[in-house]
Amino acid sequence: MQSKAKTVAEYLDSLPADRRAAIEAVRNAILKNLDKQYREGMHGMIDYCVPHSVYPDGYHCDPRQPLPFAALASQKNHMAVYLMSIYMNPEHEKWFRDAWKKTGKKLDMGKCCIRFKKLEDVALDVIGQAIRRVPAKQYIAWYEGNLKGKGKGKARPARS
Q1: With 0-12 CB in 10 A as exposed, 13-18 as middle and 19+ as buried, what is 129?
Q2: Is residue 158 part of a domain?
Q3: H or E element, residue 142
Q4: What are the CA-CA distances from residue 42 to residues 11, 35, 68, 159 (Å)?
Q5: CATH number at residue 39
Q6: What's the Cα-to-Cα distance from 105 to each of 16, 19, 28, 34, 160, rounded to whole Å?
Q7: What does the alpha-carbon distance between residue 107 and residue 32 come to, in Å, rounded to a whole number?
Q8: For residue 1, what pLDDT is reported?
Q9: Residue-wise pLDDT tens digits, 141-156
Q10: Domain range holding 27?
Q11: Is 121 left (phi over 0), alpha (psi -120 to 50) or beta?
Q12: Is residue 20 part of a domain?
């Protein structure tokens, strides 16, 4: 579900109290570990991107957009954190799955989408580590490697 909110504060204010608390907790884990070159913003959901000032080429699907890195949203039937770095790098995905498994929490994950119904379902420390492990410079290298088909493992272009 895309939000029409223009700011993160407006987005958070639009959520029911229980979802707001969960989204804020995940957001705090992201912000605490986010490389200073990424920027938080709104693009239908809370998003984290590599701005044009750091990566002028932007997102290959629409170069007018900054390069997406992560996102956080309250959807109709769940909440989700989207970590494009997991989709883009098989070794990072393996690390992520292994780290989550060690927490004893059930992982409900698609290609890059980690779905949860309540905050207790989220391994916040693993989300934070996943963010911290991929500074913008590293992420750009993975992204460009995937676009050129030179990424480790099967090349996977980023998705919107």
Answers
A1: middle
A2: no
A3: helix 136-147
A4: 8, 18, 11, 17
A5: 3.90.1150.200
A6: 24, 19, 20, 23, 28
A7: 22
A8: 61
A9: 999 998 887 544 444 4
A10: 8-147
A11: alpha
A12: yes
pLDDT tens readout for residues 120-135: 999 999 999 999 999 9
Residue 132 is inside which H or E element, if any?
helix 124-132
Q: Is residue 2 part of a domain?
A: no
One-letter identity of residue 110 = G
Query: Could you give the CA distance from residue 85 to residue 99 in angstroms, rounded to a whole number?
Result: 15
Which element (helix H / strand E) includes 100?
helix 90-103
- CA–CA gap between residue 75 and residue 80 (Å, rounded): 7
Tokens for 57, please give them: 């080429």
Distance between CA 95 and CA 97 in Å, rounded?
6
Amino acid at 56: P
pLDDT for 95 equals 97
Query: And the tokens for 48?
Result: 């984290």
The count of structural domains within the chain is 1
Mean pLDDT for the stretch of residues 24-47 = 96
Comparing CA positions, the residue from 105, 110, 119, 58 lying closest to residue 84 is: 110
Give the span between the Cα atoms of 3 and 146, in whole angstroms: 30
